[in-house]
TrEMBL record:
The name this protein goes by in its record: Heme ABC exporter ATP-binding protein CcmA
Pfam family, one: ABC_tran
Residues annotated as transmembrane: none
NCBIfam families, sorted: ccmA
Recorded superkingdom: Bacteria
Organism listed in the record: Gymnodinialimonas phycosphaerae
Biological-process GO terms, alphabetical: cytochrome complex assembly
Domain ABC transporter as annotated: residue spans: 3-211
Keywords, comma-separated and alphabetical: ATP-binding, Cytochrome c-type biogenesis, Membrane, Nucleotide-binding, Translocase, Transport
SMART domains: AAA
GO molecular function, one term: ATP hydrolysis activity
């Protein structure tokens, strides 16, 4: 196993969001996280990535196994596409950025500052960083947001190549990525009791004010 989660309870801020989550991932496996808006997919991924401590339960993996790609792209706006990847390659001790450039067709954009990219181009660069981490477990939060059909397919191909190479992935997404061997984990049964489950817009001040 590259990741084993046992009876995990997760919180976001002061509120418990999930309880009793258990699953495991072996090399070559992808797990798709499903659940309605606000169910706790991001919360689970953040907990797996070590950004939020678990309330209860255990997360077992080798040290430094998880590469987390959040909603936000987290790019260095002043650096070019190639410089962003080279920066992360130096952090993670990777030799080359060429496979990352190729996987997301970034060669024509290599010298452009990241801050001047379109939303989808930024997302491609953000996802390309996964390849330079060299980490076996990709934990991805809505990775295809802003991607067109062609680049969604590129992303799916990158995940499949990662799995073939002995990696694993856990991916929160509302779309069908077309990964034939992926398993699905619906986190709905693990939503902690007592969490408000009603209006999905209730916790959004902008939408709440405008409706
Ligand atoms: N920064 C925060 N502080 C407190 N509570 C939060 C915070 N962010 C999210 N929450 C709450 O935590 C719960 C789980 O949210 P989370 O983002 O994990 O859901 P999700 O399944 O990823 O949703 P989505 O599909 O909309 O991305 C929700 O009730 C949400 O309102």
């Amino acid at each position: 196993m590259v990741l084993t989660v046992t009876d995990l309870a997760c919180a976001r801020g002061p509120a418990q969001v999930l309880a009793g989550v258990s699953f495991s991932l072996t090399r070559g496996e992808a797990l798709i996280l499903r659940g309605r808006n606000g169910a706790g997919k991001t919360t689970l991924l953040r907990t797996l990535a070590g950004l939020t401590p678990p309330i209860a339960g255990t997360i077992d993996h080798a040290e430094g196994a998880i590469a987390y790609a959040a909603h936000a792209d987290g790019l260095k706006a002043q650096l070019s596409v190639a410089e962003n990847l080279a920066f992360w390659a130096s952090i993670f001790g990777t030799d080359t950025i060429a496979p990352a450039i190729d996987a997301f067709a970034l060669a024509p954009l290599a010298d452009r500052p990241a801050g001047e990219l379109s939303a989808g181009q930024k997302r491609r660069l953000s996802l390309a960083r996964l390849l330079v981490t060299g980490r076996p477990v990709w934990a991805l939060d809505e990775p295809t947001v802003s991607l067109d059909t062609e680049n969604t397919a590129r992303f799916a191909a990158a995940v499949e190549a990662h799995l073939r190479g002995g990696g694993a992935a856990i991916i929160a997404t509302h779309i069908d990525l077309g990964l034939p061997t992926a398993r699905t984990l619906d986190i709905s049964p693990f939503i902690a009791k007592g969490l408000p489950a009603g209006d999905p817009f209730a916790d959004d001040p902008f939408l709440g004010a405008s409706l």
